[in-house]
């Protein structure tokens, strides 16, 4: 009706105003805009600013579809196969163990362990989290085992961490959770009727799952054959409007088909993106859908905030906090333990566990269906939704806490490895020490090891050196380099390796902060030893020199000088002129670096100034 259209228009206007206010404000405080959208939803719901919540929620769910579609675009088929280990190994174990743990918390019926704990701690009402049957416990456990694809993938995308191993493990688990929703949605109506036996339930679930998986396979095969051809035809028309419309149709159409097969619509969106990832249209498709994805995802977070029942939260806040803490702790412990079993390091496992410790948007679907079918009591349903929403709101903080905790664990592991492996490496009291043995360090090692007629002592030999690195793959010495595992910027590690008075110290770390800290430690331990380092820009060079570096080389500038020289020679410029220009430009950079050092204002010299002859 006209009134509904007007309400939607006002709701849209309200949301756009909130977006304009929230995003810049939270970015200014270096906080995730997700939190701003959630708070906006709570405030707007309490003030009655959202008039048509149902239609707005339906529209906002498109944001999740576009997010999953974009994630699919980032994955090749080869990477999808690599994710299978995490999806069907780690994901299966996480869902199963979490479901069992949360279900056990609700058992036995009418006298649950969780109820007794809350009564003991907070004198809670005995009926608050009590359940009547085992079925209810299974529904609650399964619903809480799921995590939020929208929150987690948005954070991984913002931080650029999806391509990492920890990002792949997280994505694999989320994909399995999408698949796990299918049997859960199949079993709920069966539980509601009560007309089943254990013998009849499993055949029904198996038949429904096989039917759904067969349909999904047919959809994947058909998509591979048809999508590329359809995009070719539309691209030949050279109509940007038609291309954008096809992108939207692909997302929504595939989502609808997977929904009809019994799977989640988000799985369909992800599958559509994965099918297009191998085509030449991936970049343009991603650019076209990104504006829709950003706005609609923000709308989803706003509507998530409207799900909080503030009156119930205020009345039952001790119980809410206890349930929230239990949810996060149990899921973190389970996922961390599983991560170690599938090859993740402890820091990676901890990060994955904390990032997936919240409840997810599929919990809303499961609890809503359970409530509609009478499988869950109404107040318990509302309480669980509050816990899930609050856990989702904590996701940015959990992610940041996980990052810091992983760094602490990694540092602790490094400190425990001060006992260097006993290997056949010549003991030299005064070697050149290379700290960080990436590609730059390896090239430097070849410089030092090459015999020269005017080498030390006048003999035809190279300079003795010893390299240190924290990557076990580099320490394997398969290429024959004398490299040890350890943090070479720590004097204790150098002493353990037999280094008494190094001839020179070369800091080859790529991280800005780690390089500066390494120079500071080494300068304190070896006041008279020359220290050389690699710098990313003039500002970094200034920091290194202030930390005690004898000299630092601008690696990007050297690359640019080399590329410029190759270009000019290719254009026919005489080699002598190229060498002359290269020399005076390097001198200009040295002068700028010296100016920065004298003025101690590295921020003013972070960029190279225009060169004037």
UniProtKB/TrEMBL annotation:
Keyword tags: Antiport, Ion transport, Membrane, Potassium, Potassium transport, Transmembrane, Transmembrane helix, Transport
Compartments where found: Endomembrane system
Top-level taxon in the UniProt lineage: Eukaryota
Principal cellular location given in the protein's record: membrane
Membrane-crossing residue ranges in chain numbering: 87-105, 137-156, 168-190, 210-227, 320-338, 350-370, 382-402
Gene3D superfamilies: 1.20.1530.20, NAD(P)-binding Rossmann-like Domain
Membrane topology: Multi-pass membrane protein
GO molecular function list: antiporter activity
GO biological process: potassium ion transport; proton transmembrane transport
InterPro entries cross-referenced by the UniProt entry: Cation/H_exchanger_TM (IPR006153), Na+/solute_symporter_sf (IPR038770), NAD(P)-bd_dom_sf (IPR036291), RCK_N (IPR003148)
Domain RCK N-terminal: 429-554
Assigned GO CC terms: chloroplast; endomembrane system; membrane
Descriptive protein name: RCK N-terminal domain-containing protein
Organism: Selaginella moellendorffii
């Amino acid at each position: 009706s006209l009134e509904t259209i007007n309400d939607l228009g006002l709701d849209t206007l309200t949301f756009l105003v909130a977006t304009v206010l929230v995003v810049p404000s939270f970015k200014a405080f270096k906080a995730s805009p997700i939190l701003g959208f959630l708070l906006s939803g709570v405030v707007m719901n309490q003030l009655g600013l959202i008039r048509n919540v149902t239609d707005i929620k339906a529209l906002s769910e498109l944001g999740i579809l576009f997010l999953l579609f974009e994630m699919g675009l980032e994955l090749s088929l080869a990477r999808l196969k690599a994710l299978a280990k995490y999806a069907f190994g780690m994901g299966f174990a996480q869902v199963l163990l979490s479901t069992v743990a949360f279900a056990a918390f609700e058992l036995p019926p009418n006298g649950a362990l969780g109820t007794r704990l809350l009564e003991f701690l907070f004198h809670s009402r005995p009926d608050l989290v009590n359940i009547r049957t085992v079925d209810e416990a299974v529904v609650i456990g399964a619903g809480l085992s799921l995590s939020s694809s929208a929150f987690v993938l948005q954070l991984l995308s913002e931080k650029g961490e999806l391509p990492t191993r920890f990002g792949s493990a997280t994505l694999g688990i989320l994909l399995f959770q999408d698949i796990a929703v299918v049997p859960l949605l199949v079993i709920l109506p069966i539980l509601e009727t009560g007309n089943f036996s254990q013998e009849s339930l499993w055949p029904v679930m198996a038949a429904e799952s096989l039917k759904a998986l067969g349909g999904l396979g047919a959809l994947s095969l058909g998509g591979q054959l048809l999508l590329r051809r359809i995009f070719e035809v539309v691209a030949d028309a050279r109509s940007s409007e038609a291309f954008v419309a096809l992108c939207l149709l692909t997302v929504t159409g595939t989502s609808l088909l997977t929904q009809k097969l019994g799977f989640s619509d988000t799985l369909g969106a992800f599958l559509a993106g994965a099918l297009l990832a191998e085509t030449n249209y991936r970049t343009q498709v991603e650019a076209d859908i990104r504006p829709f994805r950003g706005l609609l995802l923000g709308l989803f977070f706003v509507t998530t905030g409207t799900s909080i029942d503030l009156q119930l939260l205020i009345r039952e806040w001790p119980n809410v906090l206890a349930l929230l803490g239990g949810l996060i702790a149990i899921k973190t412990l389970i996922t961390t333990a599983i991560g170690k079993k599938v090859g993740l390091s402890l820091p990676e496992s901890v990060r994955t566990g904390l990032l997936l410790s919240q409840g997810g948007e599929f919990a809303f679907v499961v609890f809503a269906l359970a409530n509609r079918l009478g499988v869950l009591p109404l107040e318990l349903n509302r309480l669980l939704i509050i816990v899930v929403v609050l856990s989702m709101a904590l996701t940015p903080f959990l992610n940041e806490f996980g990052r810091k905790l992983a760094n602490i664990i990694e540092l602790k592991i490094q400190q425990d490895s001060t006992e260097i492996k006993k290997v056949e490496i010549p003991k030299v009291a005064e070697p050149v020490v290379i700290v960080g043995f990436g590609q730059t360090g390896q090239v430097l090692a070849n410089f030092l090891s090459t015999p020269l007629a005017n080498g030390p002592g006048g003999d035809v030999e190279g300079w003795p050196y010893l390299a240190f690195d924290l990557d076990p793959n580099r320490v394997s010495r398969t290429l024959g380099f004398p490299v040890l595992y350890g943090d070479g910027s720590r004097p204790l590690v150098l002493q353990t390796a037999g280094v008494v008075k190094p001839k020179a110290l070369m800091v080859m770390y790529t991280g800005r902060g780690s390089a500066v800290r390494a120079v500071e430690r080494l300068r304190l331990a070896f006041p008279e030893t020359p220290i050389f380092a690699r710098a990313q820009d003039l500002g970094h060079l200034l920091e290194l020199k202030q930390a005690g570096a004898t000299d630092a080389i601008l690696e990007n500038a050297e690359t640019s000088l080399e590329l410029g020289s190759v270009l000019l020679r290719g254009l026919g410029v005489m080699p002598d002129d190229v060498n002359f220009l290269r020399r005076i430009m390097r001198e200009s950079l040295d002068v700028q670096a010296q100016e920065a050092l004298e003025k101690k204002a590295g921020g003013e010299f972070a960029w190279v100034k225009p060169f004037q002859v």
